[in-house]
Amino acid sequence: MRHMKTETKIKQYDKRRMMIVVMLIVIAFFCIFLIVGKKKEMEIIIKVDAMTMLQEEQLPTFTAKILSTEKPEVVLDKKKNYTVGKLISDLKKEGSYVIKPNTDGTTDGTYKIHAVINKKFYQMQQKKWKRYVKFHVEDGILTVENKYGVWEGTKFLKADGVYITNDWLSSQGNRYYFDENSNKVIGKRQIGIYNCKFGKNGKLLSQKIVIDSKKPMIALTFDDGPGEGTHQILSELERWGAHATFFMIGKNIAKYDDTVKYMEAIGCEMGNHTFSHKKLTKLDAQSVAEEIQGMDNQLREAVEKKTTVMRPPWGAVNDIVRTTAEVPLIMWSIDTKDWKTRNTQGTIDNVLNTAVDGDIVLMHDIHITTVDAAITIIPELINRGYQLVTVSELAKARGISLENGSIYYEFHPN
Ligand code: ZN
Known about the structure:
The strands form eight sheets. Strands 17, 18, 19, 20, 22, 23 and 24 form a seven-stranded parallel β-sheet that branches. A four-stranded mixed β-sheet has the order 2-9-7-6.
């Protein structure tokens, strides 16, 4: 029995020794494989260059430097004599990678510029040297400078060397308003018919239209546009927190698509002035309908909205027009005759000397003399205590519900 036990022990001892030897051999092979089989890992780096551009200008051509952690003469493929330098020059070839910024350049601020390696090129490289060539992208920074100028503390200096005063600024996706002393507004402030709330940093947080029915108001209306100068009138209205109504000609809309979008965005009213400004009283019912619908179709294409009011060309109305128009018909109480005089000061005087609470003022935004006049008229009427509102806002404030096909000339207080 004792002998048997010793023999077993010897067998177990041999077994253990064998296992250690096998393990040592395996480890040795593994080490040899590591040293011989594995090439040194290296990185190819696409380092995107920093860029600066002016807001809304064309994006610049982006560039990058290609760097590597190995020298260019290092051979990757002995058979083909393919070196690191060759790989870099292949990567530099057109189409191997594209550089894209994180912005379209319309909003100022700083953005990342990223490089993306062409998928096919990348997959091919990965197949060949997955183990030891790694691709790495270092983002660049694109600085989009505000097109209007630069911040100077609480003020904003425009490119023309003047601080923004009583006007808005869009910067880095936020809206700011600068007061009469050119300082950005903080907290609550009434701007025209808008109740605005600004944060501690001056960013606009909210704005609400508040029309006081006890205070005087006037509806400025502009016919025959949109035209070249319409945008300027709109930005003046926006500046002072004012609204107006634009009776537009349908065939003019496509050309001034952006102007109409802006008009809608700032709360102005869009009125129907027919498609091609024909005297509707000389047309048959079918043609009247075509003229009215033609304008609505154009507007729908631009802003997906329908006109809410109509002013027939020359104010020419008959029963056909009244029954065909699916909106109220708006005339005027003050005719500036701006189309005839083409005189800026004459138009200014006409409005400022005659317009009173509840008036509907007729002007034409297709004349530059009228555009210039509007820029004086808008702040002056507000300065005199008038709220500048749309025709529909004026009627509503006077407690009148407008009826389709009915004709209105003014909304004077009772
Ligand atoms: Zn007209």
